[in-house]
Amino acid sequence: VFQIIAVDATETPCERPTSKQRRWYSGKKKRHTLKMQVLINVTTNMIMSVASTFGSMHDLTLFRHSKVQLAPETALIGDAGYQGLWKDHPHALTPHKATRNTPLTDEQRQDNRVLAHTRQGVEHVIRRLKIFRVLKEVYRHRRRRFALRLHLIAALCNLNLARSA
Q1: Would you state the pLDDT for residue 1?
Q2: CA 1, 81, 66: angle at the middle one, nearest 5?
Q3: Phi and psi at residue 14, in whole multiples of 5°?
Q4: Is 85 buried (19+), middle (13-18) or exposed (0-12) by CB count in 10 A?
Q5: Residue 5: which of 93, 77, 111 has the closest Cα?
Q6: Can you name the residues that pair with 49 across neighbouring β-strands?
Q7: What integer pLDDT is reported at residue 57 of this predicted model?
Q8: Which of the residues in the chain have pLDDT under 50?
Q9: pLDDT at 72
């Protein structure tokens, strides 16, 4: 069975840690954060896997550390933060990037649009997760339990989606 899976990562702000602050500091968000990665099935929008880490870790590094096992015939779609994903998965798709000397062709632009349209489901799933304030606002609890709370909220979102279908 051929499946299309989309992957994306997002960040949740957290309180400034007392030690090892550099690990938690996200240069992208300019504050201390916790990063979470979500894998969804594009056809059903069900969350297949979630992973979390400290905010300074790159999206692709988080994907590699999460050690997600996917079937080789599965298509994996990521955003521009996952450039090089094809080294880990044979059917990985990421958007084409333009350089200063070689702008995108019309065909590459169209491919990027189709990819973005397919990928938008994962953005909606992240929005559903962030409806819960613990993932949207400043995380003030123990960082060790962030993964547990993330898994529980993902299960609630999947349950809610299954009930509405």
Answers
A1: 62
A2: 60
A3: -135, 165
A4: buried
A5: 77
A6: 39
A7: 93
A8: none
A9: 87
